[in-house]
Amino acid sequence: MKKADVKIGGKYYANVTGKKVEVQIDSEKPSGGWNATNLATGKKIHINSAQRLQGEVSKKKTSTKTQDESPQTVPADVNPDIVPIKAKRVAKQTEGQEPKRLSALAAAYMVLCEATEPLSVQQMIEAMTAKGYWTSPGGKTPHATLYSAILRELAKGEASRFVKTDRGRFVAASVEVAQ
Description:
Largest sheet: 5 strands, antiparallel
Strand content: 15-25%
CATH architecture of the domain at 104-172: Orthogonal Bundle
CATH class of the domain at 104-172: Mainly Alpha
Strand order of the largest sheet: 4-3-2-1-5
Helix content: 10-25%
């Protein structure tokens, strides 16, 4: 949209936090842009540029209640105060569908469970690739990514699947290694 097309008091579609919502322009800001009200939430927002506006709300799309509408349009057994909850989407399962592939962290844990000694992250990456548990999707430093993920997991304390034995070397928490 262009700045010249925006009118005070007009209703427009705007991009607010990544969602398309209806807003009403209240006033123009002296520093540029507009003060507006999100019609869905009633909150005041700032529109900094006309690019955030996606067009004027047409009168056909908005519905207004007439006085002759009665609240009896709702079935008697439905409580009008309860907002219906949207059903969660369930992924469609097909017969030929492969199981989900392992994450790098899960594959590293499997490799460490099978290992007889502490491994470095580079050794884990090589073993995961050799055994077919996980392959890098093309990243330049999968070892650095895995190392950082293991450190985040170690921060969980007792709930961690990994134990750091030496600098850059790890074992699975369920496997005890004799030193």
